[in-house]
Amino acid sequence: MNKDERMNYLYSVIYRMSICVLPLVVTSYIARVLGAENTGLYAFSSTVACYFIMFGKLGLDNYGSRTIASCKDDAQNLSLAFFGIFVMQMITSILSISVYILLTVTVFKNNQIIYWLQLIYVGAILFDYSWFFYGLEKFKITTIRSLISRLLIIIGVFAFVKSKDDLPVYTGIMAACFLLEQLFLLPFLIGKVDRVRLRKEDIICHIAPNLKLFVPLLALSIYNWMDKIMLGAMLKSTAVVAFYTYAENIINLPKGILTALDTVMLPRISSLAAKSHKEEGIRKMLNSVRVNSFIACALAFGIAGLAPNFIPWFLGQEYRPSIILTMQLSAAIIPMSITNVIQTQYLIPFKKEKTYIKSVSLGALINFILNAVLIPLYGAAGAVIGTLAAETAVCIYLFTRIKNIMGFKELFSALCPYLLCGVLEFIVVYILLNLKIPAFLLLIIQVIAGGCIYVSSNLIFAIYIKKEYRNLKEIIDRI
Q1: How far apart are CA 456 and CA 443, in angstroms?
Q2: pTM, whole model, 2 decimals?
Q3: What gap in Å lies between CA 22 and CA 207, rounded to an integer?
């Protein structure tokens, strides 16, 4: 990993973490002030809005980044690609916004003000061209705008959200800050592209390849978002949606560290693939699997051990049902992290869309069927089972497709020591729950002890058991 890649990775980590960490600053406050019913309603409405954003953008986050990365050294082609993609995005966004307005008028008649405020959130996709800056590997710009947006959210929430009646205020703040986040990029676009005369073909040519990446994105959304919609629709309880959403949010919090590497490596490996440097791109991907596995195991077992203390302290006693859900969902971090690397750093850069589509479609199908069967029987626990089964199935399927590059034996060899060290970490963190000390102090002790156990046990394995793992820095440098 060269200096530019390290800096881009750092910026990407900061960006991804800001998406999760800074809003988490207000999560405890919002959970107590608005209550489970209101936070569940917000989670349900924002999930609906996310679907319309997804339909408005189609597969642009990945397709746009890949396309820009492949032509960034040619100013003429870069400008043609940008404007062609952007015009297509405008058309699909307007269609999506129109359908959202229609459904708000006809279907979402209860709590309609919340859905109207979410229209600001949906409408912001008209100005979202962050994919352009990802393709150029300008991660510093997107990081700064994200930090500013999250800080505005914190200020707005603490200044204006004071009671359970302020759910519309909270919704408006979140939506408005998302819109400002997109508008922030406009000045930085000036000078990056030149005016060009677009032909109809310059727009149409992006539709088919973009749709190839949209299909897996749609399937992916089924087991990322559909569980909350199915919980709300089947159980008729926004409180259950809140319990599940907060458990999922806690799991998603550290995912920023994992997806940050994928965000940085996608344009880099896409560029290598475009220049026919396939072997170097594959090498980077395989080393990313090892690094992400190391991080994912630490996070999965650590979160599972921290949940019984963290959730009541952070969210309040009302959210105790989220404890077991968080402990169960944490297991999904491991297959999810490996899957993301293969999809983002191998399938997309090397244009293996068919395998990508099959993998996420398999996960979506398993998740949807299990949710439909298990949610009415087991509630939120049924949604957890669906998520774990889907993530595991997708990971296994992908390794059957890349077995000539990295098989199950190699994966097991890389993953086994991290799993064993993670179990030790969990045992220590969980035993510490017996300490009769203030929750916050206990949390600090758990984090320090768990981290020390995980790192030290990995070092012992690296030094005394397996030479391949003696120098983690060497593995990182290979990326």
Answers
A1: 20
A2: 0.75
A3: 36
